């Protein structure tokens, strides 16, 4: 082996890999939230025990028994009188946040591939992570308002209701994106001199 070849190892900032994994985790959680019922039946916001059961997601609702679903799939649907269409339209912030978190994740790949940190524009990642956090937080607030009201209305009609995994997945994604945004804004990813 020729010792005259001086291969330098790729230097990645110490905090880059955890931030990348957190951003990727938030993206995956938001992706599952976006592709909820009726696309993936195990991901739903609430399950109402109407005579045959119904689960609600971003794109509509489906009966538990594998029966009919809302058609066509769309953001903005109603299940009268418990769920009103104007609030379900606000769920559009989930796909927007998913796309922004994907771009934030992808913006870190050049650093993982060996581009020197001093040549990287961290402001792109910072802005994308901030926008992703804001849209996920807005979606979470609307989701709490929508499904909290729906649960109250179902229970007032003496219908059993339970929450599904999506409220918790959405909360986790928002918290992760908040941590990533704070980390990015505080300069944790910037190279140290």
UniProtKB/TrEMBL annotation:
Sequence intervals crossing the membrane: 20-46, 87-112, 124-148, 168-190
UniProt keyword annotation of Transmembrane present: yes
GO cellular component: cell division site; growing cell tip; plasma membrane
Database matches in InterPro entries: pH-response_reg_palI/RIM9 (IPR051380), SUR7/Rim9-like_fungi (IPR009571)
Keywords: Membrane, Transmembrane, Transmembrane helix
PANTHER family listed in its UniProt record: MARVEL DOMAIN-CONTAINING PROTEIN (PTHR28013:SF4), PROTEIN DCV1-RELATED (PTHR28013)
Official protein name in the record: Pali-domain-containing protein
Gene source species: Serpula lacrymans var. lacrymans (strain S7.9)
